[in-house]
Specification:
By secondary structure, this protein is α+β, with helices and mostly antiparallel strands. The chain is built from 6 helices and 6 strands; from the N terminus they run αβββαβαααββα.
Length: 180
């Protein structure tokens, strides 16, 4: 009886240990997106660093998080890339053109982290990056939905989803920084 209990405990610990080792069903690094300048932004170039994907908007109550995103990027630049993905799906709070968004971000917040073209993060036209971030059958970890602007997705150095942080979580929050 004692041997059976020990075997069950060992099996449970083995299972729990394996549950944390997640291999995505698709590689994030194979997905394509254009930068805000219209040139292809290669996610593969970021392999070896963590990536924080954030759907951003210029006219949102959370827009001041650009300051925190820039601080996070500056402080952890050696091991983290912040990628801002403009989106106009929540309250039409990102109506600007690529040039207007770029100018706004640089002039008001000094943004120099990578920004992409404007995309959809949900719905029928959901960008493949957000399909990967939000669908367990693609990322191998969890399903989620994008609730509002400035929702954050953290991916590890090998392209595995770590976690999602909703808009209320500030970029320099311990919830994020302790995972860097």
């Amino acid at each position: 009886m004692k041997k059976i209990k020990i075997m069950l405990i060992m099996t449970l610990f083995s299972f729990l240990g394996n549950a944390q080792t997640v291999t995505p069903k698709e590689s994030l690094f194979d997905l394509k997106i254009n930068s805000i300048n219209g040139e292809e932004l290669s996610l593969g170039a970021y392999k070896g660093k963590k990536i924080l994907f954030v759907n951003v908007a210029s006219k949102c109550g959370f827009t001041n998080q650009y300051d925190g995103l820039q601080d996070l990027y500056t402080k952890y630049k050696d091991k983290l890339v912040v990628v801002g993905l403009p989106c106009n799906q929540f309250g039409a709070q990102e109506p600007g053109t690529a040039e207007e968004i770029k100018t706004f971000c640089r002039m008001n917040y000094g943004v120099d982290f990578p920004m992409t073209e404007k995309i959809d993060v949900k719905g029928e036209q959901q960008h493949p990056i957000y399909q990967w971030l939000t669908q367990k059958d693609k990322n191998g970890k969890m399903s989620s939905s994008v609730k509002w602007n400035f929702q954050k997705y953290l991916v590890d150095e090998e392209g595995r989803l770590i976690d999602v942080f909703y808009s209320m979580t500030k970029p320099m929050s311990n919830k994020i920084t302790k995972r860097l």
